[in-house]
């Protein structure tokens, strides 16, 4: 009986040992394969040879695609709504330049109409060519705009007949205004005339943070990140462009980089004016390619450029990253004519929603895209002018690393 008990004990121990070994094998196979998958993905974003790519390098390249900071929740709905009084007079406004300028232009008009208790009249948009006009609803969702601002400002979709024959006085104002500015510079003109057209200019390409959330800031936030949305047909088309870019990026798990690069910018005074003592703020196509290669993006990375059409200097970029596309190569021929007037809109929203955004120039387009990306919590914005290291983390835009973009004022 004792011998049988010993045999049973030994058999039990052997069985238990086998279960432990089997468990270790399953654990090792499962978790090791997961680690390998992560490193394989990280390696796809690196350009160094596998022989000298360390685990640390691979993890850095993984970070090049990854957002690490949450923006927060919207703050603007807390204080913006108020009881609306009977409006007196009309405020209209100019929408000029690209989509990236419209947020400030519309916000200023809303702020002024609200403060002077006027009706805001929606305006036509300037077309791609001089003299061309488009209806506000050709680009933006009118119902969304009016419903979002209901209770904040009275809105007229069409210009009232009594304004049609009048030459409206024009108030030219900076992109950032205060209640005091409106009281001193706008209200006296409006009280005399009862109508006014607002034109916004941009004295600086930077959009730095506004401290605190007052009523003026709150309205601007609501316009930029809630009220001003694309109309359905245009949004659907841009979504199809984004989907195509994700499909072309299968080797990097559907991720792609958007680069704001335009050949005509290289010849501007702003680019030519950089000196050895100033931070470089313009980059050639070749320099952009070398930058992305230096921080570890692999040759098969998909890149979207805001350039209209192809330019000979892009050959230097495609030698490094052959999967480089402009919008013309992504739009079907049967839709090219219909959407040819919306090139800036396409560029703006593709750059706002790409996995990584790289600005080749420091200008308003860059600042406006950053605002939208903050709202979307897409914070991978790499500024080539930030540093000289080979670590992508050192190139995170100062708007993000220092949280000094005005859009941060809109999120708690």
From TrEMBL:
Signal peptide location: none
Record has Glycosyltransferase as a keyword: yes
Keywords (A to Z) from UniProt: Carbohydrate metabolism, Fucose metabolism, Glycosyltransferase, Transferase
The keyword Transferase appears for this protein: yes
Record GO biological process: fucose metabolic process
Annotated GO MF terms: glycosyltransferase activity
Family affiliation: Belongs to the glycosyltransferase GT106 family.
Record-given protein name: O-fucosyltransferase family protein
């Amino acid at each position: 009986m004792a011998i049988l008990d010993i045999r049973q004990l030994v058999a039990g121990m052997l069985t238990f040992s086998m279960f432990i070994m089997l468990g270790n094998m399953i654990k090792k196979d499962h978790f090791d394969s997961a680690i390998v998958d992560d490193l394989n993905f990280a390696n796809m974003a690196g350009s160094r040879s596998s022989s000298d790519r360390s685990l640390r390098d691979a993890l850095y390249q993984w970070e090049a695609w990854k957002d690490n900071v949450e923006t927060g929740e919207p703050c603007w709905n807390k204080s913006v709504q108020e009881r609306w009084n009977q409006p007196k007079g009309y405020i209209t406004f100019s929408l000029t330049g690209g989509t990236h300028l419209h947020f400030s232009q519309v916000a200023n008009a809303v702020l002024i109409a609200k403060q002077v208790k006027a009706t805001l009249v929606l305006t036509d948009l300037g077309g791609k060519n001089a003299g061309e006009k488009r209806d506000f609803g050709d680009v933006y969702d009118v119902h969304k705009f009016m419903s979002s601002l209901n209770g904040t400002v009275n809105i007229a979709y069409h210009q009232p007949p009594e304004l049609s024959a009048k030459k409206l006085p024009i108030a030219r104002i900076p992109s950032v205004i205060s209640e005091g500015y409106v009281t001193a510079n706008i209200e006296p003109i409006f009280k005399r005339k009862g109508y006014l057209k607002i034109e916004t200019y941009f004295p600086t390409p930077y959009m730095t943070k506004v401290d605190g959330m007052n009523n003026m800031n709150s309205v601007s936030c609501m316009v930029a990140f809630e009220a001003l949305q694309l109309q359905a047909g245009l949004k659907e088309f841009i979504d199809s462009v984004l989907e195509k870019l994700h499909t072309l990026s299968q080797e990097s798990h559907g991720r792609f980089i958007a680069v704001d690069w335009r050949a005509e910018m290289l010849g501007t005074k702003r680019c030519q004016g950089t000196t050895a003592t100033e931070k470089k703020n313009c980059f050639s196509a070749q320099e952009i390619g070398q930058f992305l290669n230096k921080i570890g993006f692999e040759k098969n990375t998909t890149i979207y450029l805001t350039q209209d059409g192809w330019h000979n200097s892009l050959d230097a970029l495609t030698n490094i990253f052959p999967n480089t596309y402009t919008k013309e190569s992504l739009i079907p021929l049967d839709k090219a004519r219909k959407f040819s007037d919306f090139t800036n809109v396409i560029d703006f929203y593709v750059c706002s929603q790409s996995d990584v955004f790289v600005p080749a120039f420091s200008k308003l387009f860059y600042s406006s895209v950053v605002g939208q990306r903050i709202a979307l919590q897409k914070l991978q914005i790499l500024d080539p002018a930030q540093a000289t290291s080979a670590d992508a983390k050192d190139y995170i835009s100062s708007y993000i690393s220092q949280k000094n973009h005005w859009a941060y004022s809109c999120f708690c």
